[in-house]
Design goal:
Elements (H helix, E strand, L loop, with lengths): L10 H15 L3 E11 L10 H4 L9 E7 L5 H9 L3 H10 L4 E9 L2 E8 L6 E12 L4 E13 L2 E9 L7 H14 L15 E7 L9 H9 L4 H4 L3 H6 L3 H4 L43 E7 L14 H19 L2 E10 L11 E9 L8 E5 L11 E5 L10 E4 L13 E4 L6
Parallel strand pairs: 1-2, 7-8
Antiparallel strand pairs: 1-11, 2-4, 3-4, 5-6, 6-7, 8-9, 10-11, 12-13, 14-15
Length: 431
């Protein structure tokens, strides 16, 4: 073979071209996210949730996030649910596990339940998982209202999912905003990375936010709904109105409300609340107006502002400037985009006086890493009914601990990632 020295590139040019090609090849990956919020009004789950999860759709989600409110939590039932998986969690797990999804995390606070499922292929790249909760019922002492959240790193991008149930009734719109601000202030995570909810690159805020449609009478409301003229109601939706004056709410986006208000229905019916105006001793004597109480909003973290030119040359200011610059470089190198593909309600389910709301999203990002933290393999061949030696080796440097352990998981674990059938603690000095 003939060599042509004239066509050879110098080493520096080769490196530059290689880096350039690598950057061009590192296109963003897209992931499909299926979100559900549903106030289940203490009801038992339906027999089938295929329609709710779009299980027959040709486009399968990468992630499922399900937020429920008013899961039945009478003291005796709540204690049982803490010992044994509650019926709602069991239903979602039994529906998704056979399709290759794993329950990565869940958190419950009385009637509030948040579940996070992922395709098995993504699990090694979901890290830094934490959950927390805030009570807002009875001045913060009771958990019938409040928020539960799960935060995690997905291929290096910090995401947070906040499921809320805020104060009810028409006249408490301002209180609902105050409760949301309280939840944001009180929920904290690992201080080294993203200590608070709004520090995350992407935040989803959803649940029974309880905002109502004010000023319009019942007759006008129902006529607009029957004729599908939902846009005539948007200007009097309390959340839409509050966004005009509340800077915090303006940071959150929401798709158009092109679906029927999801509250309040007669159970097992598509009819809105039809109770008589007066009942015995005055109980349940007020007919509730339809409202979009159940919502899904999101916030992509704004870009870091450039550091000020004139700063005191003290150590703290220099560190702040370096951190800001580092974050800016990370945003440019590893961008994240979100697009909502659909935002709708599901009218098929009648177990509750609320209808579930579904949001489908496309998450576009550039992965910060694609290598698992650890490689685990058997020494030699490993067949059923025979013992084997398993060797693990870290693929990335990370600090070891006396509490490190290896868990062997079934592919479809009924209880999720925290249930394993093998557990071995490692002692310092063993690798």
């Amino acid at each position: 073979m003939e060599n042509n020295d004239d066509t050879k590139e110098d080493p520096q040019s080769q490196v530059k071209n290689s880096v350039s090609m690598e950057k061009n090849c590192c296109n963003e990956d897209t992931f499909r996210l299926h979100m559900v919020t549903w106030n289940v009004a203490t009801a038992d789950p339906p027999d089938d949730i295929s329609s709710l999860l779009h299980l027959n759709s040709p486009k399968t989600p990468d992630l499922y996030v399900i937020g429920l409110q008013e899961v039945y939590s009478a003291p005796h039932r709540f204690i049982i649910d803490m010992a044994v998986e509650d019926s709602w969690s069991h239903l979602f797990m039994s529906s998704l596990a056979p399709r290759g999804y794993l329950k990565v995390s869940s958190i419950r606070m009385q009637g509030l339940l948040l579940l996070f499922f992922s395709k098995l292929a993504h699990v090694p790249f979901i890290r830094d998982i934490q959950d927390t909760y805030s009570r807002t019922g009875i001045s913060g002492y009771w958990g019938n209202k409040g928020g539960v959240s799960i935060r995690l790193s997905f291929y290096g991008h910090m995401l947070c999912f906040l499921n809320c149930h805020l104060a009810a009734h028409m006249q408490y719109a301002s209180q609902r905003v105050d409760e949301f601000e309280y939840i944001l202030d009180t929920q904290t995570f690992d201080p080294k990375k993203t200590p608070q909810i709004l520090d995350h690159k992407l935040v989803f805020w959803f649940g029974d936010l309880n905002f109502r449609i004010q000023d319009h009478g019942m007759h006008f409301l129902r006529n607009c709904i029957t004729s599908h003229k939902f846009n005539l109601l948007w200007s009097k939706d309390q959340l839409t109105m509050m966004k005009k004056t509340e800077a915090l709410l303006q940071e959150f986006d929401e798709g158009p409300l092109d679906f029927q208000p999801t509250y309040k229905f007669d159970r097992f019916s598509d009819c809105y609340d039809s109770r008589p105006h007066g009942t015995w001793l005055g109980f349940h004597g007020k007919m509730r107006k339809p409202a979009w109480t159940d919502r899904i909003l999101w916030r992509v973290k704004p870009k870091e502002p450039p550091p000020e030119e004139e700063k005191d040359e003290d150590r703290d200011s220099v560190l702040d400037e370096k951190n800001t610059k580092k974050k800016q470089e990370e945003e440019e190198e590893f961008p994240l985009k979100l697009k909502q593909d659909s935002y709708t309600s599901n009218m098929e389910y009648g177990v509750s006086d609320h209808k579930p709301v579904i949001g489908i999203f496309t998450l576009e990002l550039r992965k910060m890493y694609e290598t698992p933290l650890v490689r685990v393999c058997a020494e030699g061949e490993w067949s059923a009914d025979f013992d084997a030696i398993v060797i693990y080796s870290p693929l990335q440097p990370f600090p070891s601990s006396a509490w490190d352990w290896i868990g062997l998981y079934k592919v479809c674990v009924p209880g999720g990632i925290h249930e394993c059938f093998g557990l071995h603690y490692l002692h310092l000095g063993e690798g």
